[in-house]
Write a structure and sequence with these properties.
Shape: elongated
Strand content: under 5%
Largest sheet: none
Number of strands: 0
Helix content: over 70%
Structural class: mainly alpha
Amino acid sequence: MEKYLLGKDCIKNMDSNDQNSPHSLERFAAKNLLGNIQEFEFVFMLHLMFKMLLLTNELNKALQKKDQDIVNAISLLELAKARSQTMRESELESLINEVYSFCGKHDIMIPKMDEDYSRSKHKKSDVSYAHHFSVKIFYAVIDLQLHELNSRFDVVTNDLLLGMACLNPVESFANFDKDRIIKLAEYYPSEFDDNKLRDLNFQLDSFIVYARMCDSKFVKLERN
């Protein structure tokens, strides 16, 4: 939030410096921008987006790594989804209180939540400030993030990624999980019928014993 205050001061300086400037359009733009960032709605959205970015920060960093740990990335994905849902269900009030506190410290007008939210003085919207900030912004933003996380990483994608990660030989197949590998095979019924799945179940038991006890080259493999 320090950057918000710095930006606010910069815009004030722009407006002050432009008082004697012939560029009235620039002065108008500076005043308009200053007015926008001094509104409760702007501060509310700023706090909300900051929290949303924090929720997905570790996941984003994990996905950007060249040597991705798929199992860890999927775990972080599930954590981001769970935290987003928790925030949706129980953290609206605490967010609003944070915004109230911030606005109080920086002399930003706080609207009455039961009053009508309308950008026009001559037309009622029949939507209260409380409804606008909770439904139109808070829930809408979180629902959008949950939709993005679920659509980009659906159940099938997760199963495929986790199944492949289980075959990673690093640290003597530390991520090996027979059930996940069989689940991966089940997505290819033309290649694995019931008999082949039964055989695969036995073969995987034998494979992991051999890989961990009999083949020393897997022991030397380490994570980067």
